[in-house]
Amino acid sequence: MRANPPFVASGDVSWNSIQVHNGILKAAMSELATAARPAGLIAKTARRVGVALTISIAVAFLMMHNGWRGGPFLRTIIVGLSATTAFGLFERFPATLPPWIQRWALQVVAVGVFMPLTTLLIYILSTSPGAPPFWKVPERMNGWMMLTFLGLLIAPWTAFVAVVRQKEAFARDQKLAFALERSELERQALDARLHLLQAQVAPHFLFNTLANVQALVDAGSPHASKVLRSLVAYLRAAVPLLNEPAATIERELQLVRPYLELMQMRMPDRLKYAMNVDASAMKVRCPPTIVLTLVENAVRHGIDPSEEGGRIDIDIERRGERCVVRVKDTGAGLSQSRNGLGTGLTALRERLQLIFGDAAQLRLMSAAPRGVVAEVDMPAQT
């Protein structure tokens, strides 16, 4: 059925996103999975070691600036690596913790505990055989205290910052994972909706065409047998095209021309038609049966109800990055209907919404002096 006001199809999913969305989704999920593999753990450990070495070397320069004798680089590096080891060790062990202990707190405390223990071992192991313990040598005791103080001052706070950043990264990964899962569900719903709409087109077209043949049979027309044979041959070629997931203007015309020939055989004195197709538009991709739906709508709601019949003009042109499909008839014109658009145009509008979004428009308007113009303005993608 026809509706009075022009309408515009809109939506939020693009044709290209439908074509490539699944591949992008799988690649992103693969990237997330890779981060959890051993290679991802090695990369994370390497980053932590790099940070520890950078801080250790900076602390060593600071100690030398404050009068430390000799090179403290080895000792600060050992302390830094000890903190990194404690942080990573308690990140995974023990596997389960009591509910009142947070793992991040355990990691920070462990780093703090490792600092005096590490500096103690450094000074004990660096004491020469027969030499007095380091705590009995004021200079060495002061060095131990300075190294321990700097370790306690820097390492736990560094660990805390690392935990915060780690939680932020985890939150981002989780958000991305949820977004990808939602996108996958939306893609599946979109595919299902497109398949459903496409499934509605074929029987709708077939039933309307068979109704035309039935009208000839009921009227006792001598052309009924000829039309029926032509219809069988046409459907044998056309039905496979109806089920294709995508089409081109050229393929669309392979459906439209035989259909109009059949309709002209049914009402030779009431139907005339002409096609004006831009050669550059032939390879433009489009939703399946888009042109056929417009033409079938013109025949059923324009030419059929008109006692005088009418003419159908099909104009398809490419305007830069746009392709305009226009079907004009001089039939009965727009009529009031409580049911709104018919099945064909309703399904076409929804498919345009799902595939092109705001980039495509479907317009239905009155023609002068009578009739209707149905126009689809869509991106010219090849």
Short note summarizing the structure:
With 382 residues, this protein is α+β, with helices and mostly antiparallel strands. Helix content is 62%, strand content 11%.
Task: Give an overview in words.
By secondary structure, the protein is α+β, with helices and mostly antiparallel strands. The chain has two domains: 37-184, no CATH class; 221-379, Histidine kinase-like ATPase, C-terminal domain (Heat Shock Protein 90). Helix content is 62%, strand content 11%. The protein is built from nine helices and seven strands, in the order ααααααβαββαββαββ. The strands form two sheets. Strands 2-4-5-7-6 form a five-stranded mixed β-sheet, with helices on one face. A two-stranded antiparallel ribbon has the order 1-3. Helix 3 runs antiparallel to helix 4. The model is unreliable at 1-36 (pLDDT under 50).
